[in-house]
Amino acid sequence: MAHYRSLRDMDWGLMALTLLLCALGVLQIYSATHGTEFRDAWWKQIVWVGAGAGILFLVAGVDYHHLLDRVPWLYGLSLGTLVTVLVVGDRIFGSKRWITLFDGFRIQVSEPVKVVIILLVAQYLAGVKSDRLQVGDFLKLCGLVAVPALLVMQQPDLGTSLTYGVILLAGVFLAGLPARHWLAIALAGAILLPVGWSLLKDYQKARIYTFVNPNRDPLGAGYQVIQSKIAVGSGGLWGKGVTQGSQTQLRFLPVPHTDFLFAAFGEEHGFAGVVFALGLYFLLLMQIVQNAQRAPDRAGVYICMGVAALLLFQLLVNVGMVIGRMPTTGLPLPLMSYGGSSTLAVFAMLGLVNSVRLQRFVN
Amino acid sequence: MAFDGPDPHELLRPIPRREGARFAAGRIAVFQYLIAGVFLFLLSGFWELQVRNPAFYSERAERNRIKALPILAPRGRILDREGRVMVDNQASFSLALSRESLDEEQLRALADGLGLDFDDLVARVERFDRTHPKYEPVIVKEELTPGELAFVEAHRGDARYPDMELINAHRRLYPRGGVAAHLLGYIGEISEAELNLLEFVQREPGDVIGKSGVERQYDSLLTGIDGERRVVVDSIGREREVIGVKEAVPGRDLRLTIDLDLQAVAELAMDGRRGAVVALDPRTGEVLAMVSRPAFDPNRFAGRIRSKEWRALLSDPDKPLLNRAIQAQLAPGSTFKPIVALAGLELGVIGPDFRVTCHGGANYYGRFFRCHRAGGHGSVGLYRALADSCDVYFYAVGNRLGIDNIARYAEMVGLGRRTGIDLPGEAAGLVPSTRWKLRTFRQKWYAGETISVAIGQGALTVTPLQLAYAIGGLAMGGVWRRPHVALNAGRPDEPHRISLDPSHAEAITEALWAVVNDGGTGLRARLPGIEVCGKTGTSQLASMRALRNRELAEKLKDNAWFVGYAPKHNPEIVVVALFEGGEHGHLAAPIVRDVIKAYFDKKERRRSGRMLAWRKPVPASRR
After folding, report:
1. CA A145: distance to chain centroid?
2. Could you say which of A5, A62, A303, B201 would form a disulfide bridge with A122 (CB–CB 3.0 to 4.6 Å)?
3. Is the CB of residue A282 less than 8 Å from the CB of residue A266?
4. Residue ranges of chain B assigned to CATH 3.90.1310.10
5. CB-closest option in B4, B31, B159 to A305
6. Which is the catalytic residue, given B98, B334, B539, B543?
7. Phi-psi category of A82—alpha, beta or left, where left has phi over 0 and alpha has psi -120 to 50?
8. Angle subtended by helix axes A135-153 and A71-88, to nearest 10
């Protein structure tokens, strides 16, 4: 089949947006880490982006139907890895999320699992022949997603496990779940909420309390949010300039190269920079949605929309957190935040989108 | 799902493999709106922070970044007339708290850890809060002990404790044993009431000010200007760079007219007694020594005095906080007689040959007034009347003068009003007159009352300083210079002059010489080779009304006064000793003698150039 596809047909607009965002990210990582122990993070990130681009082309070159056919294998592998990480994973900042592959090279396994969940949901929903999703099918799919989600929650990593749920919800929404079933989900959610609350770790509860009122604990959990808002607000319209943000440079901002990168970006580039970056993200998402609209089949639609929904959710949670409109979660900002696992996973997803795009030219 | 209406897209169902996104086109559109909504939501957040409120957040970023640490200016030292240090500063540490993230729990922990009173601490921080920007730290404890320093060092950076900062401060070091305590005064944190005073208009809550004595009078001169070190700090409080240092401007040293040697002698002479000593140079008005006893230890106030200790001082019946030298208002007793004599001579009531025969008392207006010598003095003129302090003689003079003439001369020599010394809280004393009585009691003056006033009793009250001032000016032949404690403090005032008949002044001087040197009542003030003049006085506490406190009044015995000066002509020093409960004036005389002796001994030593071999003078004898 490969001879039907050509590089010319790749989504180059999407590629341009992606690399531009990565470039902004690398610049901000450099600015936020120069003179610190993370000072070489920026070129590491360039390596990750390069590797990600390679993965993107690799995935784009594969017919996504082959991948869909291997979903059971991939799903099984994911569960196995997630269990492994709980047993032998490296504990960093109090949670077990990483597996050391070889010296100094760690991978956060929940990130590639996102790709598997997207494929799983697409494969499952495309296989449902009826036009409206049946309750039985819905619950079965829920169960399939819930298992890795619960494993990730055990790490504990609430944010990432929620992203799996978002992929599921997006798929179910597109598949067309009748209104009364949505109502039932809402009801079940309302009932399960207190149960879920009791399952939360203390620090997670604290984060939610703090989200409601950051001044409750200005030196503890609320500190990050307050400092982040100060960073963003003090950036003003035009920003303080690269490497000039006092909140970033004097480390008042927590982890300014990963989770709070966008706060550092907002401080140093101001509202103008924020509009530019968010504009790029907006175009990126719209481009992905357009690919969904032109997908050759339902599975392709589900894949593209899953990617779009996931990116939108991470964007909302991460950027919302930076401006104090979302609770603090450890979700990185796709493409911009420093981190190999996240970057590679996003590039793999964009590879899937390209794969879907290239298939529409088949036949 | 039979009731679900058919979807138009499903009616036009294409080939399965090619159906693409048509099955969910509407829902994809909804999703696009969702994307747009999320972006608007996020952008509005940035709009709110970066466009609507950037100034608010910029200021907070600055406050994060910049810490202003005060550099406390040392207060000026206080020196004696020869430049010897009376009040010094000693390096110490003060504890300052950053108030930006201060909460009550942390304050409680700190109060427990340092043994501070929690309510005091909170009140102090709140007072400071009202007037100072948030980034300025508040000083909550001065003069940390080594133990407290260790505690602070051990708990810095601990989130359970406030953000603590140690600041180099200067502890005030006063002479030990309460020497010159009232004169020098003490310092303390400015109170609410003091904040409203004009003299402290430039001060802010939390400032340390002079509370009494010289410290208060010359507060603005002694106070320096605090500096500030503005530093950039990172999130864990490490200093990254110093962006500005405003050096502190130290307060100016103040040189007093006090001679520490004379002060020491006077302090020793008054040790364990209640009363006051004032030594003046009548030629200049310079105060050479000023003692008030009982004293307090101003070093206890230099930091934060505990309220319990403070209340104890306030309620002490001996009133150790009272500066008796300028605030005790007591009847002068016989030390008033030279002034009555002056009035009599000047007004021609008594001529050079005026004599009175004393039989131990006399009748006036239906009442018998006794002389202190029951057997009587016999026939006395002015010379012996002053030398032996004959009351009967002065009854006669006073009776001839009348109260208003006495009052006129008393006021002329400086009684009944403040001398204007450069110390806060000076009392005015009281010179009774017919007008005074009418105004105060709405009663007419009874002639009998004049008889008491003529020997320095009755409603008449003076302060020790006033007495020294009055007699000193008289000894100068009618030139009064305003007493002052600051050396070279501006241009000297024009002296207050009265043209007296030289022969009248001479007659009084001769008689006062006789008090000490010709068998008079002040024999104990005699010094070989020095012509000491003086006058004893015993006040019979007729002025109890002024003290108000009855219990205290009953406890008190007669007060002994002595005022002396030397030499006889062109006096260089006039000394007043008030010995409360001293029973008789001649008991106050040795105190004055010691001070005068110290003065002339020192002068002699200086002249013979043996300054290096000089030892601290010791009172010749003490009783």
Report:
1. 16
2. A303
3. no
4. 68-255
5. B31
6. B334
7. alpha
8. 30
Looking at the complex, report in whole angstroms how far the Cα of residue A63 sits from the nearest Cα belonging to chain B: 14
Q: Which residue has the tokens 């403090």?
A: B489
**Domain B68-255 CATH class label:** alpha beta
For residue B622, pLDDT over 50 is answered with no
| Neighbour-count burial of B227, counting CB atoms closer than 10 A to its CB (0-12 exposed, 13-18 middle, 19+ buried) | middle
Residue of B nearest to A219 (CA): B101
Q: How far is CA B293 from the centre of its chain?
A: 15
Torsion of CA B108, B112, B114, B117, to 10 degrees: 70
Contact across the interface for B57 and A234, Cβ inside 8 Å: yes
Q: Closest Cα partner for A11 from A45, A57, A58?
A: A57
A250 touches chain B (CB under 8 A): yes
**Side chain identity, residue B312:** A
Around Cβ A284, how many Cβ atoms within 10 Å?
A: 23
Alpha-carbon distance B229 to nearest alpha carbon in chain A (angstroms): 19
* C-beta of residue B511 within 8 angstroms of C-beta of residue B393: no
Show residues of chain A in contact with B56, CB under 8 Å. 233
Task: Tally the residues of chain A.
Answer: 363
Q: Is B482 helix (H, G, I), strand (E, B) or coil?
A: coil
Mean pLDDT confidence for B432-454: 91
Q: In what helix (H) or strand (E) does residue A223 lie, and over which residues does it extend?
A: helix A221-235
Question: How large a percentage of chain A has pLDDT more than 90?
Answer: 48
Between A176, A234, A271, which is nearest B46 by CB?
A: A271
Is A292 in the B-facing interface, judged by CB distances under 8 Å?
yes
Chain B within 8 Å of A57 (Cβ-Cβ)?
A: no
pLDDT above 90 coverage of chain B, percent: 41
CA dist., res. B142 & res. B307, Å (int):
16
ipTM for this prediction: 0.92
Confidence of residue B104 (pLDDT cuts 50, 70, 90): confident
* CATH number corresponding to B260-300+324-613: 3.40.710.10
Give B340-377 as a DSSP string. Answer: HHHHHHHTTSS-TT--EEESSEEEETTEEEE-SSTT--
Q: Is A287 in contact with A231 (CB distance < 8 Å)?
A: no
Q: Which of A23-32, A36-45, B306-315 has the lowest mean pLDDT?
A: B306-315
What ranges do the domains of chain A cover?
A: 9-359
Distance from CA of B101 to the nearest CA of A (A): 7
Q: Is residue A44 over pLDDT 80?
A: yes
Put simply, the answer to whether B46 touches A296 (Cβ < 8 Å) is no
Q: Which two tokens stand for residue B42?
A: 């996020």
The pLDDT tens digits for A232-255 are: 998 889 988 888 888 888 878 888
Looking at CA atoms only, how far is residue A313 from chain B in angstroms? Answer: 9
A173: contact with B, CB 8 A cutoff: yes
